[in-house]
């Protein structure tokens, strides 16, 4: 008698939600890399040892991933990347959400949902292999299902040839850009009465007042990053803006 087909969706595919979230250039790059290589058949899967995350004992491996689990892994890797926060290493989606969007959730005849295919992939393979790290979420009420937070490890990215140094370079660049943007976006807000007072001063006095306003507005570390040349440029910009305002007031 032929074996019953127990797999609900033999070819799962990650389908991002319609209300797509904004993802970084790094995540776009990582998803592209993961799509170009068969992550389920990566050499890393054969060279690493399977370790029980609870006991630390090495678990025996008798064969490679079966095709159904391999298909599930290909879809789930892309889903995890899509919801990945590079700053916290956290996958900002539940196991249930990942299962739903990869077509890996199943329903019984009575209508009960099962996400076993994904949870087993994570618990029995991805975590013991060191690709992810899971942390149980404590809940006050008793439930048969204990949700988990999923964190991606550097080993996860090695599946598609992205080293930790590449991740660090992106983080450094991202941090630097955000700091520069924060500094350039800051503006000096001067009230109308201040403008009227300053309109009666000479250029040297006005520039001195602008300098004092800048020193009071920015932190010491921000002023250091701006530097003397940047500070002079900022004073020039604010002075020119004031000159334009003076002309409007006179009209």
Automatic annotation (TrEMBL):
BP GO terms, sorted: DNA replication; plasmid maintenance
Pfam families per record:
IncFII_repA
Q: Does the keyword Chaperone apply?
A: no
Which InterPro entries does the record match to this protein?
Answer: Plasmid_replication_init_RepA
Entry keyword set: DNA replication, Plasmid, Plasmid copy control
Is Cytoplasm among the key words of this record? no
Tell me the protein family, please.
Answer: Belongs to the IncFII RepA family.
| Function per UniProt | This protein is essential for plasmid replication; it is involved in copy control functions.
List the protein's name. Putative replication-associated protein
Origin organism of this chain? Answer: Buchnera aphidicola
């Amino acid at each position: 008698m032929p074996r019953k087909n127990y797999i609900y969706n033999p070819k799962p595919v990650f389908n991002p939600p319609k209300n797509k979230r904004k993802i970084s250039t790094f995540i776009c790059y990582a998803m592209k890399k993961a799509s170009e290589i068969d992550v389920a058949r990566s050499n890393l899967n054969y060279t690493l040892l399977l370790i029980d995350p609870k006991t630390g004992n090495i678990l025996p491996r008798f064969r490679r991933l079966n095709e159904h689990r391999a298909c599930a892994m290909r879809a789930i890797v892309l889903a995890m990347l899509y919801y990945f926060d590079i700053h916290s290493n956290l996958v900002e989606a539940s196991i249930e959400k990942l299962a739903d969007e990869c077509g890996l959730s199943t329903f019984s005849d009575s209508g009960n949902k099962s996400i076993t295919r994904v949870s087993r992939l994570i618990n029995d393979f991805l975590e013991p292999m060191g690709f992810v790290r899971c942390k149980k979420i404590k809940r006050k009420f008793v439930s048969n299902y204990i949700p988990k937070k999923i964190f991606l490890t550097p080993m996860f990215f090695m599946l598609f040839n992205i080293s930790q140094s590449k991740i660090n370079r992106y983080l450094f660049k991202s941090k630097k850009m955000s700091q520069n943007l924060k500094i350039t976006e800051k503006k000096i807000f001067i009230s109308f009465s201040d403008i009227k007072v300053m309109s009666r001063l000479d250029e040297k006095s006005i520039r001195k007042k602008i300098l004092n306003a800048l020193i009071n507005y920015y932190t010491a570390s921000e002023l250091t990053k701006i530097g003397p040349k940047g500070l002079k440029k900022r004073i020039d910009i604010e002075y020119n803006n004031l000159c334009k305002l003076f002309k409007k007031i006179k009209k």
